[in-house]
Amino acid sequence: MDKWERDQIRSANDGLRATLDSIEGDFERELGELGEVQRKLAALQVRATTPNNLGKVTVNGSGVVTDITIADDAFRRTTPRQLSEDLNAAIRGGVNAAMEARAKILEPLESVVDRMPDLGEVMPGMPSMRELRERFSENQSPPEQ
Fold this sequence. Notes:
This protein is mainly alpha-helical. It has five helices and three strands. It has helices at 3-43, 74-77, 80-115, 119-122, 129-138, and strands at residues 45-49, 55-60, 65-70. The protein has a three-stranded antiparallel beta sheet with strand order 1-2-3. A hairpin with a 4-residue loop joins β2 (55-60) and β3 (65-70). The longest helix is centred in the N-terminal third of the chain and has 41 residues, at 3-43. The chain is rod-shaped and about 90 Å long. It starts with a helix and ends in a 7-residue tail after the last helix.
């Protein structure tokens, strides 16, 4: 191997090292924000009221219903079928609102990740992590009811 080839390899190695150092710096900043994001997600609760004010639901940051409260006079004011439909509407609204709030909390981390080079950009031939993330996020939307 002659000097020119060694210099080319060193240059490529230096470029890769600089890219990886940049990724590491972004990752360290992201980790610094992660604790605050986790705290916000753990505390996230969304409350939704049924269309006819017959009940209320609480949904956590994961989109799980954690509480359902039915008005004392709900059974006098409506039918069981209508109450069920109203509660389902409130649950859907609460889950959608929780997912929107969750996305807003995660937004700063997403922007850091989006600015980082993709794995395939750093190491040619490696899979695209962005494409993988998009594929999984498409499958994470709540089921239609």
